[in-house]
Specification:
single chain; 518 residues; alpha/beta; six-stranded mixed sheet; five-stranded parallel sheet; 22 helices
Length: 518
């Protein structure tokens, strides 16, 4: 271990003599720099941490006492050795109050300096050992906490208290959580590589180094698989991209991170963990695949390798058309498939995971759709018959219809998605494409063309559909009069509302309410 040191003295002969005459390396030190006054030294300390500061106590501009005080405030200095003259008693008294290690009278004696350096070196060694033990203990506690957390075995009060103790309470303030399992990859075969101890140690060392200045956290799971947690999939992708470049040079292996489903609450991270494992060892990874693989992408890869038989093309088409009934028919057909129920339920499970992951990805939902749709991977173990899966299909498809299909936020175009959100947030008002275009500084004609291209509808048609659908909700959920409902959903003219409602629904609002009541 090499300890860093800087020397500060306004006399060139003293500072250069200390640098050149003292056998620093014999005592485990490396001189990081020499400075002529406190200002120069402090500027260096703003961007560097050092183990030992050797400074004259009486200097122009900034004296040694002020330098030590400000260096302590920055938290950049561990130990201080003061150089002083016989007439520096007032300064020296202040320095002692700052808890300096020792002082040496000028003219400097080499043997005396070396004696002090040996004592301080021993103290640094003890402190380093204690810090390592403390860090190891904190790592072990954090690791144990997250091993239990990903098993769903931690409750809110314990999580909050332990993260506070471990100085990780900021994790609770994150907007979201994404977890990924990290594996080395045999680049020739495309299969996950079972790393030996040396490879695994190197991989983890690189991981720890790469996440130091990022909003990511590392821990080992109970199977000794390296796990990463970040706020977003993008943050994990960035980290693992850098790690993969470094690791491939040393190990000649690829590196891949299998992402689980994003969640909005740290207490729900076990859903992400379970889904990260779902495809980790089941699929061969094609060459040129990105180092970070989201759960939705993993399902596609698995299907391409015949690891699972999810009807991806059919699902994509159904989701594109927002067809609730077709989605339910598809899931029911999977549940009714004749064969081993364990395989059927796994196919059903993977299909649901793919559907929700794809919707999450397409809609760019701020919160986790898995949470909002109440889809928990662990729940699927409770289904024992095809009928139980079919009953679940009805509930799930109703939720998807309400939260996603009816919201319309499902295109792959961010501009159109923003426009759709505008409609759903302000449909009771007198909204229009020109008004919105002026607000965002875009061309209204271009927006209209883009909207129709992505949704297959004219903007005005879509606004009317949203208003009528909300009216249907109010007709079935409230006892408001028809004229009141018309005003609440953005139709100030009730006669126009009746005409539009009949065009879209094929009946009057009163008939719709009566049919829904029956």
């Amino acid at each position: 271990m090499s300890w860093s040191v800087i020397i500060v003295d306004d006399e060139p002969k003293v500072r250069n003599g200390l640098r050149d005459v003292i056998p620093w390396h014999d005592y485990g030190y490396t001189v990081q720099g020499v400075f002529s006054d406190g200002d120069e030294a402090l500027e260096h300390l703003r961007s560097h941490e050092i183990d030992l500061l050797v400074t004259d106590i009486k200097m122009p501009r900034m004296n040694g006492v002020d330098l030590v005080r400000r260096a302590r405030d920055l938290g950049r200095v561990s130990h201080v050795l003061i150089l002083s003259g016989y007439d520096d008693f007032a300064y020296l008294k202040s320095a002692i109050e700052l808890n300096v290690d020792s002082y040496i009278l000028k003219p400097v004696n080499v043997d005396e300096v070396c004696s002090h350096l040996g004592t301080i070196e021993q103290q640094l060694g003890h402190e380093q050992h204690s810090l390592r033990l403390m860090d190891a203990g904190m790592d072990a506690l954090l690791n144990n906490l997250f091993q239990r957390l990903v098993q769903g075995d931690v409750r809110a009060p314990e999580l909050r208290n332990k993260l506070t103790f471990l100085e990780q309470a900021d994790l609770l303030l994150w907007d979201g959580y994404c977890i990924g399992a990290v594996q080395l990859l045999d680049t020739d075969s495309g299969w996950a590589h079972h790393a030996n101890a040396r490879e695994l140690e190197y991989l983890v060392r690189v991981l720890r180094s790469e996440i130091k200045h990022t909003a990511c956290l590392f821990f080992w799971d109970r199977d000794r698989v390296p796990m990463l947690i970040g706020q977003t999939e993008a943050s994990l992708a960035q980290v693992i991209g850098e790690v993969a470049r470094t690791v491939s040079i040393e190990t000649k292996k690829g590196c891949v991170c299998f992402g689980g489903v994003p969640v909005s609450d740290l207490l729900e991270i076990h859903h992400g963990y379970q889904t990260a494992y779902e495809h980790m060892f089941r699929s061969r990874i094609p060459k040129d695949t990105a180092s970070y693989i989201s759960y939705a992408d993993a399902v596609i890869i698995a299907a391409a390798n015949d690891a699972t038989t999810i009807p991806i093309g059919h699902i994509d088409e159904i989701l594109h058309h927002s067809d609730k009934e077709a989605l339910r028919d598809l899931l029911d057909s999977i549940a009714r498939d004749a064969g081993d129920f364990a395989k059927v339920s796994r196919r059903y499970f993977s299909s649901v995971m793919y559907i929700v992951s794809l919707l999450q990805k397409r809609t760019k939902h701020i919160t986790s759709l898995f949470d909002e749709l109440e889809v928990a991977p662990g729940d699927f173990s409770s289904f024992a018959t095809p009928l139980s899966l079919i009953a679940y299909s009805r509930t799930l498809c109703d939720r998807i219809d309400k939260l996603v299909f009816r919201s319309g936020v499902q295109t792959s175009n961010a501009i159109v998605n923003d426009l759709v959100r505008y409609v759903h947030n302000r449909y009771p008002e007198g909204i229009g494409l020109t008004v919105y275009a002026d607000e965002v500084g875009m061309n209204a004609a271009y927006l209209g063309h883009l909207f129709r291209q992505e949704t297959g509808r004219r903007f005005t048609q879509y606004v009317r559909e949203v208003r009528v659908q909300r009216a249907c909700d109010l007709l079935t959920e409230t006892s408001f009069r028809i004229t009141e409902i018309a005003g609440k959903v953005g139709f100030p003219d009730s006669r126009y509302f009746l005409r539009v409602f009949r065009e879209i629904k094929g009946c009057t609002p009163s008939q719709y309410r009566n049919l829904a009541g029956n």
